[in-house]
TrEMBL record:
<dbReference type="Pfam" id="PF07596">
    <property type="entry name" value="SBP_bac_10"/>
</dbReference>
<dbReference type="InterPro" id="IPR011453">
    <property type="entry name" value="DUF1559"/>
</dbReference>
<keyword id="KW-0472">Membrane</keyword>
<keyword id="KW-0812">Transmembrane</keyword>
<dbReference type="InterPro" id="IPR027558">
    <property type="entry name" value="Pre_pil_HX9DG_C"/>
</dbReference>
<feature type="transmembrane region" description="Helical">
    <location>
        <begin position="26"/>
        <end position="47"/>
    </location>
</feature>
<keyword id="KW-1133">Transmembrane helix</keyword>
<feature type="domain" description="DUF1559">
    <location>
        <begin position="51"/>
        <end position="151"/>
    </location>
</feature>
<protein>
    <recommendedName>
        <fullName>DUF1559 domain-containing protein</fullName>
    </recommendedName>
</protein>
<dbReference type="InterPro" id="IPR045584">
    <property type="entry name" value="Pilin-like"/>
</dbReference>
């Protein structure tokens, strides 16, 4: 294991884990099924609804791939990545989106990790040049007007969340159950750079559909956003769900259960 600035935060080398529990295989099969579904939809006649359905499926599939990478990271280090890595002065330096790149499925995305410099901040002169190489799994094709270098997915960060600032969380700490805890979701309006150590704050979260929180760009779909749970599953959360109910699902040890969906 490699550590950064002596803070006990795992900065992964480009290595893989031999541990492939059943839940990981289920996630992989789901990703493959989703990819085939997208392929067949795009092969159908060029009809708007079919195209948008394929884009929605691709967005959902991206979250599943991110979930698999998070679990692969946990397999190697015994913990999920922190929301960000800071320097000795507490300044946020690097995002979890960079830390999990060695564990994603696409070799092109993994190669971007090898180009990233951890000896400078995310917005240092070299790392800024990587913004134009946004990994595909961080972009939702439904968001056609996305600003270059931005991500469509963000974690919810707070002391009671799976993404807890610089402090990593283990699966055992998620006493609400991994199937009842939201880790991240679509955040198409936030304009967060993919390498930027910034996400959605639990303290300032308003409601699903808020452009600074979790929101999506899906045509012809009821308002809401896809979210990734700690077990690697993906669920659509409607903007009609009360904000306080959503916030309870962001916490890892509050005693809440995922409502019907």
């Amino acid at each position: 294991m490699v550590y950064y600035e002596g803070e006990g935060i795992a900065i992964p080398r480009n290595e893989t884990s031999d541990s492939r529990p059943f839940v990981r295989r289920v996630i992989v099969y789901g990703i493959l099924a989703g990819a085939l579904f997208v392929f067949f939809l795009f092969m159908m006649p060029s009809v708007g609804p079919h195209r948008e359905a394929a884009r929605r499926t691709a967005c959902r599939n991206n979250l599943k791939q991110i979930g698999l990478a998070l679990h692969n990271y946990h397999d190697v280090y015994g913990m999920f990545p922190p929301a960000y890595v800071s320097n000795g002065q507490g300044q946020p330096m690097h995002s979890w989106r960079v830390l999990i790149l060695p564990y994603v499925d696409d070799s092109k995305d993994r190669a971007i990790y090898d180009q990233y410099h951890f000896d400078e901040p995310w917005d240092g002169p070299h790392n800024l040049g990587l913004l134009e190489k946004t990994p595909q799994l961080y972009r939702c094709p439904s968001h056609k007007d996305a600003e270059a270098g931005t991500t469509d997915y963000a974690a919810v960060v707070g002391d009671a969340c799976v993404m807890r600032g610089t402090v990593p969380v283990t699966i055992r700490e998620i006493t609400d159950g991994t199937s009842n805890t939201i880790v991240l979701g679509e955040s198409s309006g936030s304009r967060i750079r993919w390498t930027e150590p910034r996400d959605v704050s639990l303290g300032t979260f308003k409601h699903i559909g808020d452009v600074d929180g979790f929101s999506s760009e899906h045509d012809g779909m009821q308002g809401g956003a896809f979210t990734l749970l700690a077990d690697g599953s993906v669920h659509f959360v409607s903007e009609e769900m009360p904000a306080e109910s959503v916030k309870k699902l962001f916490t890892l040890a509050g005693g809440e259960e995922m409502p019907p969906y």
